[in-house]
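Lab notebook page, bench 4
Experiment: in silico fold of construct C2
Operator: M.H.
Input chain length: 353 residues
Purpose: comparison with the prior construct
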Amino acid sequence: MDARENYLRAATFGYPEYIPYKINLSGSTWVALGKELEEIVLRHPRTWPGYTPRNINWEELPVEPHEDPAQDFVDQWGCVWRTIVRGMTGSVIKPALENLADLAAYQPPDPHTYNGGMYPIDWAHTKKRLERARKEGRTAIGKIYHGFFMLRLEYLRGFENLMYDLVDETPEFLALVEIVHERNKQAVINWLAAGAEVLKLPEDLGGQTCSFLGPQLFAKWVTPYHKELHDIAHRHGALTHFHCDGNIMDVADQIIAIGPDIFNPQDVCNGVDNLAEAFKGRMCIDLDFDRQNTMCYGSPQEIWELLEYEVKTLGQPAGGLMLHAGTWGEVPPENIEAMAAAMEKLCTYWSER
């Protein structure tokens, strides 16, 4: 089966031939490691198929405007971003609506080119890209830009203001919530019209030990809005993928209620056994490998041992497991190579049983 069929079988418990996996090498890691990283990639064509060598100055690697420390970046909403590391997203240094009294005269982004608020999107071009993916045996995956709802409200208001807003529920804040949500609904509809068969809806709503809103506020301000977007996609026959960094075990039941087909949590901060108890068999788990410690500071043997435990604990012959690892900054090159080797070996663990 081609990569598309294998991915969809894994997502729907249809007995894939292998566990789909991906290692995302951020721009900041390319800047830090350069040619040494390229040599690793070339040694692992299964993990990075189709890669061709580049003759460039790695320290001047082209990056997205919001990943460029030489200049601040203003997104579609008017929020000002700053990064200090080339190739890495920074943070908002000036929210667009610190004063909600400004909402009356505020001009939100055009819903016809909206995809989460960082950059406008060309839907005609996007439709052609998704059609090409399917013709080439790849899954037609759509994605609203990361941090599209609750984090977007934080970017617009600032964290402290948002915490007050969620309790005070002023008319101005309620109006802002609806403005953001309506644009997200339009983006979902546009992705479906463009042919997305899987739609990614990513936010980071967990802290180090629990969700940053807690179950009560999560139930009021996250679950119903997210569920509506997933429901729209499902009614049009698409699968949904929900990414959420941080510890979210206190709201695990609400994530199940939101109803993603694929859930992308972090491993160690949630606990692998906890994830198995809450989600295994209920939805496909697209597991995010420990980027806080093991990837950066562990040994190649520790990488293998953790990944092997995760595959054995969360996987099964029917599927329901995907693997993801990300690198940020100067990760030890030997660990990146160890991760590639481990994923290449362990991705067939269940199909070879």
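Observations: Residues 171-194 form the longest helix (24 residues). The radius of gyration is 20 Å.
Next step: discuss at group meeting.
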